[in-house]
Amino acid sequence: MNFIETRGNDGQHPQSVTFSQAILSPMNSFGGIYVPETLPTLGLEFLQQHLQSNYKELAKAVLDAFDLDVDASVIDTALGLYDEFDDANNPVPVTKVREDLYVSELYHGPTRAFKDMALQPFGTVLSDLAQKRQENYLIMAATSGDTGPATLETFKNKANVQVVCLYPDGGTSDVQRLQMVTEDAANLKVIGIHGDFDDAQSALKSLLSSNTFREKLKAKSIHLSAANSVNFGRIIFQQIYHIHSYLELVRQKAISLGDNVYLNVPSGNFGNALGGYYAMKMGLPVEKIIIASNSNNVLTDLINTGKYDLRNRSVIATTSPAMDILKSSNVERVLYDFFGSSRTKELMLQLDSENAYELTGAELEQLRTVFIADSCNDESGKNYIKTTFDGGYLMDPHTATCFKAYESCRDKPLVTITYSTAEWTKFSPMIAEALSNEQNLTDSEALKSISKTAKTVIPDNINDLFSKPITHPMVIDKKDIESEILKFLG
Ligand SMILES: *Cc1c(COP(=O)(O)O)cnc(C)c1O
After folding, report:
1. How many other CB atoms are there within 10 angstroms of residue 443's CB atom?
2. CA atoms of 92 and 110, how far apart (whole Å)
């Protein structure tokens, strides 16, 4: 299967590229992103066939349907990483929380957040492609907390790939920071920046677009790639768990095969929701996809009013920081799918120049045949954490945003799959406050408090962080980033 561009082709670049080209070099003609030329049709027969498949077997079959230019043995090795999740037989448990609300837990991997679902296998695939081509790649990431640890974890000690990860000093939780600064591998560099996430991200962007920086990399024979969620190498792995969760509901007899369900997704860059949308297009029986946002509710506005408007907005820091996003990159793939490349290009250029765009009434109606949306502020999220815990289920603040949308958006009483994207251990101070009204605890104190209140254990890979040596103590000013990266690259 080949990949084409969301904003059309300039005649200078290839009309279409293979999967491996799309993931090694995600840059293309007009600043758009790659999408599959067509999607495979899976349908009910496929679901029937895989009712008894385990996660890896299902994943293999879905990837086979995409006919990727990656060796089967590499895919097997990549999918083998799901064996390292908490339960090798069931890496994505689905738990009943209310009569018709089931939570699909995507956080049982090494860094305790859903980024592992895609980044774990992605690292193996990218490193293998780089080795086969005898090329060296640099991956640069700016993180507000979850992408950084997951990116470092997947590439540590992988051949032909080096990773530089920038994080805002003081802008992540202790656990997230420790997950990064205690990583110990020669191909990884973690740098704290004086400033906030936007500073880290804009520093990264200006480096990526700097010709002199690119020339210096070229002189070292280093290619640039990216591990952010515009890389289709991540999206490809994010369709599988939607299909798995559906089959799990059939196995648990919550639904019969063929019944429609709602997918309920806490959204930021829209990668998770896009995976659900593609799964639906391939034949998964989905009624609608419910998009949950926090107070940074651009997606709610887009889906409810057709307006994507950043003019009077700046990012609001919330207790669900992985969703503190205003420019949601994968929305572009949905626009392309609904409205085609020339309209997508027009809308995206408008967003660049005017900081806003507006869909027509007919376009909005089309979008709403698939997506519905609501947003949830911190206070309300905190209440959902408390009441849901009182009902017997402990969840993190990102997952909590879904509960409001679940209550407000559904127009049919269908079973809903709500995605849980992080373990409670990653956002413990806020959860301790929700559960027992303790204010301003450190991560370490909050972990202990929740573990006592909820009678649950702190996983070893979180506990161990507090005693591991810090291998990346560096915290610097933005202006020194380039020279530090070049020093690291040698
Ligand atoms: C990344 C992330 C999200 C947002 O997912 P998108 O695919 O970017 O929409 C939600 N919750 C957590 C915990 C995350 O790490």
Report:
1. 22
2. 13
State both tokens at 149: 């640890």
- Alpha-carbon distances, residue 361 vs 211, 305, 368 (angstroms): 42, 9, 11
Q: Per residue in 342-368, pLDDT tens?
A: 999 999 999 999 999 999 999 999 999
Q: Are 146 and 176 in contact (CB under 8 A)?
A: yes
Would you say the CB of residue 165 lies under 6 angstroms from ligand 1? no
Q: What is the pTM of this model?
A: 0.96
CA-CA distance, 231 to 233, in Å (whole number)?
A: 5
Positions in the chain whose pLDDT score sits under 50? none
Tell me if 419 CB under 6 Å of ligand 1: no
Sign of CA dihedral 332, 337, 238, 379: positive
Which atom of ligand 1 is least distant from the CA of 114?
Answer: 15
End-to-end CA distance of the chain: 38
pLDDT score for 198: 79
The CA distances from residue 173 to 169, 178, 441, in Å, are 10, 9, 12
- Report the separation in Å between the CA atom of 273 and the middle of ligand 1, taken as the mean of its atom positions: 10
CB-neighbour burial class of residue 402 (10 A; exposed 0-12, middle 13-18, buried 19+): buried
What is the rounded distance in angstroms from the CA atom of residue 349 to the CA atom of residue 30?
10
Query: Cβ(146) to ligand 1 under 6 A?
Result: yes
Ligand 1 within 6 A of CB of 427? no
Q: Residue 230's pLDDT is what?
A: 85
Instruction: Enumerate domains of the chain plus CATH numbers.
Output: 76-113+234-465 (3.40.50.1100)
Determine the atom of ligand 1 nearest the C-alpha atom of 399: 11
Cα distance between residue 304 and residue 324, in whole Å: 19
Pick from 106, 120, 146, 427 the residue to mutate for probing ligand 1's pocket: most ligand atoms within 8 Å of its CB. Answer: 146
Q: Which atom of ligand 1 is nearest to the CA of 325?
A: 8
- The answer to whether the CB of 418 falls within 8 A of the CB of 103 is yes
**If you take atom 2 of ligand 1, which residue's CA is the nearest one?**
322
Distance CA 463, CA 442 (A): 14
In angstroms, what is the span from residue 143 Cα to ligand 1's centroid?
12
DSSP string covering 415-445: -EEEEE-B-GGGGHHHHHHHHH---S--HHH
Distance CA 105, CA 113 (A): 9
- Distance, in Å, from the CA atom of 100 to the CA atom of 93, rounded to the nearest integer, reads 16
Q: Is the shortest distance between the CB of 323 and ligand 1 below 6 Å?
A: yes
Atom 7, ligand 1: residue with shortest CA distance: 271
Q: Is the CB of 172 inside a 6 Å radius of any atom of ligand 1?
A: no
* Ligand 1 neighbour 268 (Cβ under 6 A): yes
